[in-house]
Amino acid sequence: MKGLDRNALEQVAEYFQSLAEPTRLCLLNALRNGEMTVSELAEGAESTPANVSKHLSLLAKTGFVERRTQGTSAYYRITDPDIYALCDLVCGQIAKRLSAQAEAHNAFKKAARRA
Amino acid sequence: MKGLDRNALEQVAEYFQSLAEPTRLCLLNALRNGEMTVSELAEGAESTPANVSKHLSLLAKTGFVERRTQGTSAYYRITDPDIYALCDLVCGQIAKRLSAQAEAHNAFKKAARRA
DNA sequence: TGATTACTTAACTAATTGGTTGTATAGTAG
DNA sequence: CTACTATACAACCAATTAGTTAAGTAATCA
Questions:
Q1: What is the CATH number of domain B1-79?
Q2: Cα–Cα dist A68/A91, whole Å
Q3: What is the pLDDT of residues A72-101, one digit of tens each?
Q4: B73-CA/D4-C1' distance, Å
Q5: Positions 49-88 in B, CB within 7 angstroms of strand C
């Protein structure tokens, strides 16, 4: 990520955009355990099949998931498990921030006690 | 990222959302080389100071950058360089996809030649 | 065949967002 | 003080988007 032209930046942004929605993250997280149908995913995500289907087709378009049909059901699965490395990295970043916040909070309380 | 409640998912989504915009990625990329003023960043990103200022305050609010003023200028810098690990990981993912696409493209051409 | 199930998609609404423009603030120079 | 510079911010607009609703498609079963 050094000499990035506008086109490359847009690709990276689109990648992040796919992950910038709680419901989609929930779907990807559910798919950690293997492929699932739309209705199973909808139940797990506490959403409607229509909404989940829309999110899944976006994730399919951007290459995060793949689709397989069997009978009247559509099974979705993760294309490349490496994306979880990304999610875990982000979770680590957020955890780091939260602990930094906690530390700052403690420091503040300490200072308040001194005052 | 296993047992994630709605709140955690929203935090992660917000994190990704901050990175889901080409101009903001451009700013973060420019800040790899150290702190810069708003107008310097605006020039580098081929945007207006007002627009860049808005993006920077979002990045500051979500904790990606920090602000320092000197004279009439505002200098921004990266809070935690570890975010670049994330960006590089994403670039790697995208590169992987592009090469997969290229391979599929070649396979298609090969098949077409055979037909 | 008709009925049911599972999913997709189009149309719509409400909310969000990137960018622009104009105004306000703060520091600096004369 | 005024004038100028750098930045921030509010108001606004156009475009995008998450979610709902209803209609449409495809496979299964009586």
A1: 1.10.10.10
A2: 30
A3: 999 999 999 989 988 888 878 888 887 777
A4: 14
A5: 50-51, 54-55, 58, 69, 71-72
